[in-house]
Amino acid sequence: MISDAEWSRLRGGLRFGQVFTGTVVRVPKPGAIGVFVDIGLPAGGFVDVLLLPLDVARWPTEGTVADFELWWADPDPRRQQIRLKPADPALLREDFGELMDTLRPDWPSLIGRPLDVTIAP
User: S1 motif domain location, by residue (predicted)?
Assistant: First the structure.
């Protein structure tokens, strides 16, 4: 865990949709939680189960290297986790387009913008 100030500084330099190449380092409960990804930053990356394929057999496994887009990073330094979404459509849930219409209909307009505490994931 990094200091509160370091988290604020790190988070302040992140942009929605920013692409990171990362390695899946942990899949604790396939089909239930999500996957942890090392993206080379002092805070860990995580892809939520809601964004991954419904078929667990299509989930990335430990050691998988792929590109991930920055989806969210909580401003609260107690929750130092960088939320990611797979850039590869093969690693996204099958109905991702419909899910986006519900969860993040404004996603295209957010890409490239700095993270903003007024925007919830």
Answer: 17-49
